[in-house]
Write a structure and sequence with these properties.
Layout lengths: L2 E9 L2 E8 L8 E9 L2 H7 L16 E7 L11 E3 L10 H4 L31 E4 L2 H4 L1 E2 L6 H4 L5 H11 L7 E5 L3 H13 L3 E6 L2 H10 L3 E4 L5 H8 L4 E6 L4 H9 L1 E9 L22 E4 L6 H12 L9 E6 L3 H10 L6 E5 L1
Parallel strand pairs: 8-9, 8-11, 9-10, 11-12, 12-13, 14-15
Antiparallel strand pairs: 1-2, 3-4, 3-6, 3-15, 4-5, 5-7
The structure holds nicotinamide-adenine-dinucleotide and zinc ion (ZN) (2 copies).
């Protein structure tokens, strides 16, 4: 039996790098040798027991690699091709996919919420030397030679998710947009709002490093929620309310504040992963009479989404590399988790090299 090094979830606050069986590609599958991956805020939710996965699972869902094996039926690729794989792996054939809800890809027929998020959730994930890619034909995006692994690794999840916050919010040219939280997801939502043509972008966080990065990603104004009344300030800056508010944290408090920032008819575009109860007073959304829209989005995946994001980087319209602040080997990944979890040392994203 061939083995590989992989990050295995054993229980709450217990992950270990160990030897596990190496995967092999079956029909319609591919195996990639992972050359770079990272740690997501959602992995922290898993580590802390706020989102549960089965003990024994290899975690991580942001892979860049080289094709090592191609199963029968996967065409147009060669062993050795460099590929980016989205965090979400739609099959492209099920009811959800063919209805246009690729991220909700069900296992064949139905609409399991999060069905399309498989890596490090329902199947082994990317924080390992090798990764089995299901539905490979729909999910392997070739990486242009000119782009490095560090230029593309964040496209798999955080850039795809962050941009989708602006896209689902239907940001229009000239809109005023406020983004709650400027972690990696919120920073990419900020960049997304700029790409979509917003004319006023307000980034909110409590961490000065992140607020500085928010400016670099496209925020015109940054607000430290520890120092100012954010809702009042947004209303003042936007002359009555933002067109779109993006929630990129996942707490009841930021959800409510995002709603309170909206003008009548505005859209709350929610990206955060919530736990516990979401409760709020009726006046936060005009008692239901404000013509507000509330939309949620799970990271868009699939090779066409990745191709589009790769083209944004290649054309120079988006540069994700300033977001990678630290680098670790796979064997040092628990140190990466500690740093990322504590938001220590100005960390934004950590690159993990198997
Ligand atoms: N929808 C999706 O598909 C998807 C994908 C990936 C991650 N997520 C979720 O997105 C969320 C953000 O992820 P991340 O990696 O950027 O998280 P992160 O923990 O790195 O960043 C969160 C940021 O929120 C800031 N913050 C804390 N309290 C705040 C407040 N009251 N107001 C404003 N800012 C505040 C922190 O200073 C920090 O910068 C998480 O819930 C994550 O699980 C969703
Ligand atoms: Zn993620
Ligand atoms: Zn599907």
């Amino acid at each position: 039996m061939k083995t590989m090094r992989a990050t295995v979830f054993h229980g709450v606050n217990d992950i270990r790098v160990e030897e596990v069986e190496r995967p092999h590609a079956g029909i319609g599958e591919a195996v990639i040798r992972v050359t770079l991956t990272t740690i997501c805020g959602t992995d922290l939710h898993i580590l802390r027991g706020e989102y549960s996965v089965k003990p024994g699972l290899v975690i991580g869902h942001e892979p860049v690699g080289v094709i090592g094996e191609l199963g029968p039926g996967v065409t147009g690729y060669q062993v050795g091709d460099r590929v980016l794989v989205g965090a979400i792996t739609p099959c492209g054939q099920c009811r959800a996919c063919l209805s246009g809800h690729l991220s909700q890809c069900g296992h064949g027929g139905g609409y399991d919420a999060l069905g399309g998020w498989r890596f490090g959730n329902t199947i082994n994930g990317a924080q390992a030397e090798y990764l089995l890619v299901p539905h490979a034909q729909a999910n392997l995006a070739k990486i242009p030679d000119a782009l490095t692994d560090e230029q593309v690794v964040l496209l798999s999840d955080i850039a795809s998710t962050g941009f989708s916050g602006a896209e689902s919010g239907n940001v229009r040219i000239g809109d005023a947009v406020v983004i709650f939280a400027q972690g990696p997801i919120g920073l990419c939502a900020t960049a997304g709002a700029k790409l979509m043509g917003a004319s006023l972008i307000i980034g909110v966080d409590g961490n000065e490093h992140r607020l500085a990065m928010a400016r670099r990603m496209g925020a015109d104004v940054v607000l430290n929620y520890r120092e100012v009344d954010v809702v009042a300030e947004v209303k003042r800056l936007t002359d009555g309310g933002a067109d779109v508010a993006i929630e990129a944290l996942g707490t009841a408090q930021t959800f409510e504040s995002a709603l309170r920032c909206l003008r009548p008819g505005g859209t709350l575009s929610s990206l955060g992963v919530y736990s516990g109860k979401l409760q709020m007073p009726h006046d936060a959304f005009a008692s239901g009479l404000g013509d507000h829209r509330i939309v949620t989005t799970l990271c868009p995946g699939g090779k066409e989404r990745m191709r589009r994001l790769l083209s944004l980087v290649q054309s120079g319209r988006f540069d994700p590399t300033p977001l990678i602040t630290h680098r670790f080997s796979l064997d040092e990944i628990t140190e990466g988790y500690r740093l990322f979890g504590e938001q220590a040392d100005g960390v934004l994203k950590v690159a993990i090299k198997p």
